[in-house]
Specification:
Helix content: 25-40%
Strand content: 25-35%
Bound molecules: (R)-mevalonate
Distance between the termini: 5 Å
Number of helices: 9
Number of strands: 13
């Protein structure tokens, strides 16, 4: 038996950081993600390979489960092993995890790995989890490994599409017909999300009134962006991205490299551009319906940039034979 699965990564379009302070946000699943291939075996061996990090491991089934101690190594392998440890198997399998997206730069790669593995492995274990169970169990794994995790990443990888997260962290899908070509550019500096979230909290403690107004403005931006997406208003969407970027700068999560990428994108024709995710490193997004190739060329002179679109689909799997 062969099972293939795919789960998308994500970008936050609006509302990073303010979402932690209960304001709305908008995230989009992207057409880059994680492909998993599972091939059944006739013995009690499980092999795991992750080519992009040169990882391969052999595990043995004992009473139909792996002997796993839940000690984490701060590696993407932690997520895979946590998923495998949830299930009982009659026979082993070979699992190959192909991470076809940048790793560890705020694009939800760990969630995409977890969700894609959860789908393929639950199918193999005859449990075939539904989407709600996949999202919930994947989030539990992110919390166990990272200490805290918003539901955004695992939900995007599970459900796909564009999701509006309201002030109560309830996720609602936005349906719209607008094409949303996005350029992502990665400055190759890893950011520590926990530290950045903490630095923003400390600013809030120091300047509660100012920060409340900034978070409120970020929330209004996300609400207006939802309307812009529903109405297909690209000019408004781009303006709102630029407004959001200014406010993210004001709360201290912007960096020289992120600014450089934002202004390079704008200089060569992007209508809107902003950092995405926690800031402090990682990626920017640029909304550029025209001039895409030139913007990509300019960004790629110094950084790693690529095109992406919305992935309307979330996690999916096929049993090949
Ligand atoms: C990180 O990708 C986005 C933050 O808003 C944190 C979170 O929502 O968990 C900074």
């Amino acid at each position: 038996m062969k099972i293939k699965s795919f789960a998308p990564g994500k970008v936050i379009l609006f509302g990073e950081h303010s979402v932690v302070h209960n304001r709305p946000a908008i995230a989009m699943a992207i057409d880059k993600g994680v492909d998993v291939e599972l091939n059944s075996r006739d013995d009690n061996i499980i092999t795991v390979t992750i080519p992009v990090i040169n990882y391969s491991e052999k595990l043995f089934l004992l009473d139909n489960m792996i002997d796993y101690n839940h000690i984490h190594n701060n590696m993407i392998t932690d997520y895979v092993l946590e998923v495998i440890s949830l299930f009982k198997f009659d026979k082993g399998f070979d699992l190959e995890v192909n991470i076809n997206m940048p790793l560890g730069v705020g694009l939800g790669s760990s969630a995409a790995v977890t969700v894609s593995c959860m789908k393929a492995i639950s199918l193999y274990a005859n449990e075939d989890y539904d989407l709600e169970t996949i999202a919930q169990k994947s989030r539990n794994i992110e919390i166990a490994i990272q200490g805290a995790a918003s539901p955004i990443d695992t939900s995007m990888s599970t459900y796909g599409g564009i999701i509006y997260i309201n002030h109560e962290s309830k996720l609602n899908r936005i349906d719209f017909d607008m094409q949303l070509p996005i350029i992502i550019s990665d400055c190759n500096i890893e950011a520590n999300t926990g530290k950045l979230v903490e630095s923003v909290r400390l600013k809030y403690v120091e300047y509660p009134e100012i920060m409340t107004n900034i978070f409120d403005a970020m929330g209004l931006i996300a609400d207006n962006a939802k309307i812009a997406l529903e109405e297909g208003n690209s000019e408004s969407l781009a303006n709102l991205m630029n407004l959001n970027q200014g406010l993210l700068d004001s709360i201290g999560v912007n960096t020289f490299e992120l600014s450089d990428m934002v202004f390079t994108a704008r200089k060569f024709g992007a209508l809107g551009s902003k950092l995405t995710g926690s800031g402090g490193g990682g990626c920017i997004i640029a909304y550029a319906p025209d001039n895409t190739e030139e913007i990509l060329r300019q960004l790629n002179l110094k950084y790693k940039a690529f095109k992406c679109e919305e992935s309307k689909k979330g996690v999916q799997a096929q049993i090949i034979k």
